[in-house]
Amino acid sequence: MPDPVNPTPLPAANPAPGSTTSTSTGLPSNVAAALACIPLIGGLIFYILEKNDSFVRFYAMQSIIFGGIWFLFNLLSWILHLIFWSIPVAGPIFSGLWVFVAALVHLGLLVIMVIAMIKAFSGVRWDIPFVGPIARKQTGEV
User: Fold this and answer.
1) Residue 17 pLDDT > 60, yes or no?
2) How far from chain centre, in Å, is Cα 121?
């Protein structure tokens, strides 16, 4: 009877960059960075909790800045909506047009947030236009 042959192990698949390290939160780096992309709240939580992983800290800072911009847009949009609504006769028309424009802007911001989450989860460091360079400077990655 022939000797049993040990099967050769299959080579390990290459993990996505950034996913091999564990953060101080205990999550893989790519998962923590994707969760940090939730505007303001996720960014603040992961920026405070994560002390070592620059990948997660970058996405957290980018989320804080992006969420702040989104919040300011909401605030200014609400004020502008009230101003338009108070215009006699043409107010409802201008207000309705502004609601449509604001909805398009919100859709665009949502798409940017989803793209950032996908990029973070895949381990790619992606800069949101205008926000990414500011976040890099704040985290010291210049």
Assistant:
1) no
2) 10
